[in-house]
């Protein structure tokens, strides 16, 4: 997709339910396919899964997946109602571990990542970016 294409944004609000992770992943795949960004799908799914999983597993309220594309960059973000900053693991997770490696994967695979508090919702927004180039 050329960088001159107009920017777009989608937000999917989900309940605090692990099934929401699969729904977000499938919605992301459809959105990227329809916007001719299929080359980003596999990595974007992995990153979105980690962000939304953290939002659902580690908080008690609703969450949201936000996708934004602008100037050749896809930003994937997850909002949740807990204002506590995302904490890196206290220890390095084992290679075979099924939990505890989410933010490590995001850091390793994304072109950039970060988080910020959302004052109006008293929550936080954790995001990462992928270049479409």
Give a short overview.
The chain has 133 residues and is of the alpha+beta class. It has 3 helices and 5 strands.
Number of strands: 5
Shape: globular
Mean pLDDT, rounded to whole units?
A: 89
Beta-strand percent range: 25-35%
Q: Main beta sheet, described? A: 5 strands, antiparallel
Strand order of the largest sheet: 1-2-3-5-4
Q: Which structural category do the helix and sheet elements fall into?
A: alpha+beta
How many helical elements?
Answer: 3
N→C terminal distance: 9 Å
Provide structural commentary:
The chain is α+β, with helices and mostly antiparallel strands and 133 residues long. 31% of the residues lie in helices and 29% in strands. It contains 3 helices and 5 strands. The chain has a 5-stranded antiparallel beta sheet, with helices on one face. Helix 1 (19-34) packs antiparallel against helix 2 (41-57) and helix 2 (41-57) packs antiparallel against helix 3. The chain is globular and about 35 Å long. The termini are close together.
């Amino acid at each position: 997709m050329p960088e001159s294409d107009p920017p777009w944004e989608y937000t999917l609000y989900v309940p605090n339910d692990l099934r929401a992770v699969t729904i977000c992943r499938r919605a992301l795949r459809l959105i990227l396919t329809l916007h001719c960004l299929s080359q980003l799908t596999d990595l974007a799914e992995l990153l979105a899964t980690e962000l939304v999983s953290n939002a659902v597993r580690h908080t008690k309220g609703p969450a949201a997946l936000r996708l934004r594309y602008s100037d050749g960059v896809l930003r994937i973000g997850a909002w949740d109602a807990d204002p506590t900053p995302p904490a890196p693991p206290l220890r390095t997770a084992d290679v075979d571990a099924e939990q505890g490696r989410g933010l490590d994967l995001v850091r390793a695979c994304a072109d950039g990542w970060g988080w910020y508090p959302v004052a109006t919702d008293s929550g936080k927004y954790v995001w990462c970016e992928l270049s479409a180039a």
